[in-house]
Amino acid sequence: MTERRLLVAHIFYPSLIVAVAVISILVLALALQWVGQLFPGFFLDPNLLVSESWDEGWTGPKAGLHHRDRVLSVDGESISSSQEVINLVRARGVGTVLTYTVERGAKTREIAIPTMGFRWRDFVVFFAIPYVSGLAYLLLGLLVYTQCPDVDVGRAFLLFCLSFAVIVVTLFDMLADHTFSRLWVVIFPFVAGTGIHLALIFPERKGIVLRHPRLQFVPHLPAIALAILSLLYFSAPEVRLTLQRLAAVYLGLGTAFFLAMMAQTYWRTQSATVRRQAKVVLLAGIIAFVPGGMWTIVSSVWYSVVAPQVVIPFLILFPLSIAYAIVKYRLFQLERLISQGMVYSTLTVFLALLYFALLTFTQAISQELFGQPSPLLAFASVLLVAVLFEPLRSRLQSVVDRTFYRERVSYRRFLADFAHSLRTAVSLDDTLVQLVNQVSQTMHIAHASVLLRSEPQGDYHLVEGRGLPEGAEISLEGDNPLIARLGQGEIVDIEAAQGTLTRWGVMLAVPLIAREKLIGLLALGPKASDEVYTSWDRELLCALSDRAATAIAIGQLVNQIKARERVDQELKVARVIQTSFLPEVCCEIPGFEVAAYWQAAREVGGDFYDFIPLPDGRQGLVIADVSDKGVPAALFMALCRALVRASAVSSPTADEALQRANELILADASSGMFVTLFYAILDPASRKLTYVNAGHNPPILSQRDRMLLLKAKGIVLGIIEDIELERREVELAEGDVVVFYTDGVTEAINEGQEEFSQGRLAEVIVENRSLTAQGLIDKINAAVTAFIGEEPQFDDFTLVVLKCV
User: Fold this and answer.
1) Model confidence, pTM
2) Averaged pLDDT for residues 198-206
3) Listed residue (147, 167, 166, 162) closest to 197, CA to CA
């Protein structure tokens, strides 16, 4: 998680907790106002439908009222909201009979119902039971989140607990005041969504989530859709009721999915600890959710008359099972809770005694001096205790840690020492040695090793170890499920078959994450004492891995920079060598101007051109493009240039020269590369240009009144034997211009992903054909540069211009 996203999370989740806490307080205040007050003897929902939640002893059901009856009027007075009914009832006395006109199906009827008081018993059944259950979820979600605020399992569990807490603590408000009715219908679908999300990653990530991490958020999509529709159609009773049924069915399916995932984890996991966790949660989940799920489905289809409060106590078993798993299997840092509990318990007792002692002393002085207690001195006592709280807490925490948790104190010192050692490390190798040595010595581990990611394969291989047998080879493939878990920042216990990790006795794998990427892992063997790795050990390793991963990433970057500097130096030398193969100056041909331009896309490239003097005053002109870029292309280019030059000198015609060159290239090349090449022979005396084309871009001939592409049939060199090349001839006249080019010119791309194209090149040639050969090259180069703008050159760029003067 990036620093920015982490900051947002640290604001977002605590804000949700505070919001739910405030809602819980408001709901409690509203519910307490009902005790002893008159009410109709039944509940109404926001659409004036009689709720299924009631007591058989209430006056409503006794008088024959049915749930889902719609109340139209009271004593002949039309009503538009449930609050109007409450106001009419509370304006009368206890036992006053009111006549309600209700709609049941397609018929209306009048039912006389006496008013009654809302009893403490009703308050406990309809408010207190679900409210306490909701608070239990809220507190458990808060407990888990405070222990692991940056772990997605902790955040997912918090969202599940908060959504369930909101639904349950506002359940009475849904029946009575309807202050939070819209919030209730919005949050209700998210109980299922967050529950399914939690099932996908707890107690271990499911395989599909390891392969596609974003799929864990898919269950929230139906919840979002149902929430939006429920809010939009809140005032449409039938539509809202249908949406609520769909949300209830989604909750039932989510419950079944959660239990199924727990069962699958129990039967298929390779970790004994995870299996025990799944067993506890599965058994408690069955007891907790099956009654609730049955009620949800039945009530959504058959309008069950069983009040939901009856099944809510079962749901408390679920958070209790999670709490048991925390304590029993140390899912989180139990020692920290004990340590902080000791601190705050001791501090509370001490400060209470201090406060009462100060209060007694100051009041005695006040009584002696002024004859009465002084409120000012009492306030000063409270202020003094508040000022002393944080210094005393910090000091007491230090005493408790040194007395009961010496291990933690020594680990803090170790982290400081390790940080200092990293500053003195001069290379990546030094950092790795410091890491394995200090971890092994401080934690008394039999052996420790570091595996780093190798690119581009993405596998992880042993690079440094201590205590391993000679010749040990530890590695992990990049698609190993363990890598996915480590990539989430999870410290993994190696309890079952994990390939080479188990074979070499690795007990714990600690992720090394830098820039949100798993760059390696620290593989630890058993402790010399055979003790398990405690939560303090894991806390130390988390802090240690953060520092070590940063130092390793820096070391790797330094190595990469040094390697790049070496490569850059080698490329510079290669560029000098390659440039030396190109003609230093353009050839001089009587009656013609010749100019050339070459620019590689990288330090070295695959384009080349050449001028080959031939017998009888003729001149060979070559332009070519090798099928790759960089050093391999440069080497192949040098080979092709030499072979083409040798073939041209010894062959009477252009086609025979390239056929011979093709044979030599095939005999000498094993790289699988090929070359496109245009070869022309100019006879200055007759001004005839004879040419062949081996799959290259056809040069452009610009004459006074027309433009031609010098096309000829042919295939690239270096692919097949016995190639056929068509030889053609054209006679040049004064002012004619021939532009030879490679595809790096016509395929240059601008920021809009448009190519410069052969058409644009032809336009530049026509507009500037009166210029010298060098002047035309400058214009073409300027046009291409202006066209691509800030876009980088992606291919080699070569031009040769021949002008008849």
Assistant:
1) 0.48
2) 84
3) 162
